Amino acid sequence: MKKITLLIIALTTFSCTQAQKTEFSKKALSETLLSTDGNQVKFKDILKKQKGKTTIIEFWASWCGDCVKAMPKLKELQANNPSVSYVFMSMDKTADKWKAGIDKHQLDGLHYMANDGMKGVFGTAVDLDWIPRYIIIDKTGKIVVYRAIETDFEKINDTLKKLESI
């Protein structure tokens, strides 16, 4: 009986940490990110500009091997879903490396960089524990998929197709 109780507690704990969120925390919304023109922009203002558009937010970094490995799949996703807006959130440590990564990988979309890296205030506020990480937001601004990684492209594509038909 003890083993069953421990298993239930473990499963409950794990499922709660992986919970699907439908909106960002106030802390995340109030955080600022660096734009490519050198200005600081609040995350909530970035999201406001996406209202009315299906949006994928990708958290990535130029130093991240898994991020670079996923780029061809991301480009395929963009080609197959041209009406989707793409927002890239870099976790690079310097703006120079971030901008070089954008150029090197020819990333088409809007670009911002966290001011304090992956484990900083913004990364913590969006539960960032792995990159690349993808969040899908529908046209109303609701989070549809809160946690997808580079192995979830089929799930991401299926979700985008469903949102397109709505």
Concise description?
The chain has 7 helices and 7 strands. The chain is α/β, with parallel strands linked by helices and 166 residues long.
What does this structure look like?
- This protein has 166 residues and is an alpha/beta fold.
- The chain has a single domain, classed as Glutaredoxin, CATH 3.40.30.10.
- Helix content is 44%, strand content 22%.
- It has seven helices and seven strands, in the order ααββαβαβαβαββα.
- Strands 2-1-5-4-3-6-7 form a seven-stranded mixed beta sheet.
- β6 and β7 form a beta hairpin.
- The N terminus is likely disordered.
- Keywords: Cytochrome c-type biogenesis, Disulfide bond, Redox-active center.
- Pfam families: Thioredoxin_8.
- One of its GO terms (cellular component) is cell envelope.
Distance between the termini: 47 Å
Describe the global form.
Answer: globular
Q: How much is the average pLDDT? A: 89
Strand order of the largest sheet: 2-1-5-4-3-6-7
How does CATH name the architecture?
3-Layer(aba) Sandwich
Helices and strands, in N-to-C order?
A: HHEEHEHEHEHEEH
Domain Thioredoxin: 22-165
Subcellular location: Cell envelope
Main location: other
Pfam families: Thioredoxin_8
